[in-house]
Amino acid sequence: MICNEVDYEIIGEEMQIVEVELDPGETVIAEAGVMNYMEEGIMFDTKLGDGSNPNEGFFGKLLSAGKRAIASESVFMTHFTNTGAGKKRVAFAAPYPGKIIPVDLDKFGGVIYCQKDAFLCAALGTKIDIAFNKRLGVGFFGGEGFILEKLVGDGMVFIHAGGTIVKKELHGESLRVDTGCLVAFSEGIDYSIERAGKLKSMIFGGEGLFLATLRGNGVVYLQSLPFSRLADRIIESAPDMGGKQVGEGSVLGGLGKLFESD
Q1: Distances (CA, A) of 96 to 16, 118, 231
Q2: Domain 7-230 homologous superfamily, CATH
Q3: How many other CB atoms are there within 10 angstroms of residue 18's CB atom?
Q4: Which of 5, 84, 86, 240 would you call most buried, defined as having the most Cβ atoms within 10 angstroms of its Cβ?
Q5: Residue 47 half-sphere exposure, CB side, CA atoms within 13 Å?
Q6: Which pLDDT band holds residue 108 (cuts at 50, 70, 90)?
Q7: pTM score over 0.85
Q8: Is the pLDDT reported for residue 259 higher than 50?
Q9: How many CB atoms within 10 Å of residue 134?
Q10: Cα–Cα distance between 59 and 45 in angstroms, integer?
């Protein structure tokens, strides 16, 4: 299926939204719960599957939904269609601060891989599939987990990254990154997990036990603030069950709780 051609505008700097302009009868698909606003004339429908193959039948859709369920993704996707007479707009936003990356799949050979929670929305006709990585090391230690999302088509897709985005183009080189900082990469990139230096560095270095190594020819997108890091800091700063909390910047920090009275 040929993807719809969509016009878009990315609004904002640090907490961006993408506003997609739809012609009459045109449709864009999105993850459930990411819609921000839409103009009158746009109708939405929650469906089982991405709609890339209208003739796949119920069992084909069920199989696709099952693969997404394995990846802990919603089995449903929302289809937004312009049923009005003129151009209409619908906007999508990610659930945490960061940037939105517009990717023209036609310029990436029709395929790009991304971490499972990075996909935001795409032109109708884009196939949202699950890529099972054959290397067990990647599955056990990779920040993206054993499963990556595989986006296939010839139209626009939009993925989200936390913090600042860095785009790297590899021409036979290799790049080692924190596993959580990897957002997406094109075909031609080989993704593996390797030990992060010597044993002392692995335990006390603070960079985790393993790093992702990317080799080959293609494009890699990185993020400066993985959501897991942000969540860890929020949890560390949250009050304990008793409602007590040492102030931020305290010299004692968590040690101060040892001297607190009931």
Answers
A1: 10, 11, 10
A2: Mitochondrial biogenesis AIM24 (3.60.160.10)
A3: 27
A4: 84
A5: 22
A6: very high
A7: no
A8: no
A9: 8
A10: 19
